[in-house]
Amino acid sequence: MGGRVLSPVLLVGAGTGEATCGILYLAGYLRRGGIEAFVRLYDGDETEAEVTRTFESLLRRVRPKLVGISLKWFHHVDRALLIARTIRRLDPTIRVVVGGNSASYWWKELSGYDSIDHVVLGDGEVPLLALCNGEEAPPNVVTRTPDGRPRRLPLAYVQRATNSDDIYYSHFNDIFLSQMDLHSFSGWVAPGKGCGENCLYCGGARGNQKADFGRAKPFLRAEEYVRRDHQEIASSTWQMRYDFAGSTAGFLSGTWAGVDLSHHCCTYFLWGVPKVELVAALAATFQRVYMVIDIGCFSEQQRLEQMGRGLLKPCAKDRELLEVIDASRKYPNLDIEISGIGGLPFASKATLAEELRLVERIIGLDCVVGYQRLEAQPGALVTEHPARFDMETEAKTFAEFLDYFERREPGDVSVPMIRFRDAGLEAAVQQTSDQVDAMAWKHRDERKSVAVHGKTRLRNTAPWTQRFTLGDWLGSHRAPAKFAGEAVTVLRSVDGITMSCAPSVSPNRFSDPTLMQGEDGAILLAALAAFEHPTTVSSAVSKLGAKARLDPHSAREVIDHLVDGRFLQPA
């Protein structure tokens, strides 16, 4: 490496939508280490041509010496390789590095691609900084020897409770390339890292954590540094999101100390039924709380069978689950989703009937149901050894997963599945899955639906509205200079849906898929303005006819669209 410092650095995610929060922790760490790091957090590109155009502009703006690609989720592997190929083609001098859970699992295969210079295994902060500083033997890093073979260094850097005090969010005013990127951040905070369970369906279970990260046990980060996370991001996000099993009410309350979160929402993905104290703390701290409780599967018999065999994390019995739902009813600002997987091993006619009964009961209590069929995850026990459970998988090897994802059409989010070899059982499982899906989505739609007629009084309930220039919102790499000063009005609904309106920018002159432009943008802003104060729908239709020249039918369509997005709600 010759000791050359690689700065600036650009960090991106391998998938579309919001990248993992890991690149934000990395960027802050690099900044504190003297490296000029930037993140591209949001990716909306669908085609290879769009990816090329985006990286042409990104590389011109940042001029990075190193690009880091976060390959956390396995279903982004084809996207990671596309990005790596694109960067190599556009500028062969840029060092390309991939890291994350899936990159660590597939390090041998990824090291064989000429477009990838290094694979970082496990925790990435110290290894990536060492690479940027030109160190000869950066820990945890896979490099190629002169004969082209990958050389894996030992996992010398493993984050634990005793050595992770330097991991926290920072430099949020410096690392983002656009306001859109900053406001795409969903508020993820990591109270801790790792997993101590060995669920048969999970590629990130204890065994792979040990192999890929060197971490056999999960740990909680120091309270002070999780509090720094909250302090850094509270002004930039509308919610906080958590996904960790070990957090208690006392721990989280300490991390919230001194940070006003009373106007924030909270989404918490729980690996089991929460204690009453945690539920109470969440409800008292946040304006609204959405708890997702993972119970493994909706059949208690099947759940207990897997737990008894050591194949599933500790999950609640039905009685315990219903008790926490009942105890949560006292908090009007709290909603619950119960999540489980269909088609797990040991399914039978009896377990399928149990699934339907519990789903019906949960929906009857007005809790949302989250449900999906068993998918193939690289490294998961059931993916590696499906025959043990009389099942078969649609993908197992790196080549099979990559082939599956490369064949998907743009916008297709399907993944390889695991199914029963017994055709009759598979048909019964799929029929139950279809029934649960239908019930769950019908219930979701009913919860969201608002009956709107001419006399309905609505009000603009968007809790956040800001104006930016087009250059600030999209970033100078994305907005042409001649339009950079045009105004963009950005609104966020109570559910976090963002709408960006640029009425002065005709799509015939410049078009961006994230914007509502020209006349469309003007109409949406006019409709929202009509409901600045509680107003009947019929009155607003008349206003839109006079001010926006909309016929009554078109005006109602616009109003219904804004109601569906919860920008307008009953007054």
From TrEMBL:
Domain B12-binding as annotated: residue spans: 5-142
Cited Gene3D superfamilies: Cobalamin-binding domain
Protein name per Swiss-Prot or TrEMBL: Mg-protoporphyrin IX monomethyl ester oxidative cyclase (Anaerobic)
PROSITE patterns noted in UniProt: B12_BINDING
Pfam families: B12-binding
GO terms of molecular function: catalytic activity; cobalamin binding; iron-sulfur cluster binding; metal ion binding
Organism superkingdom: Bacteria
Family annotation (InterPro entries): BchE-like (IPR051198), Cobalamin-bd (IPR006158), rSAM (IPR007197)
Keywords: Iron, Iron-sulfur, Metal-binding, S-adenosyl-L-methionine
Cofactor(s) essential for the protein: [4Fe-4S] cluster
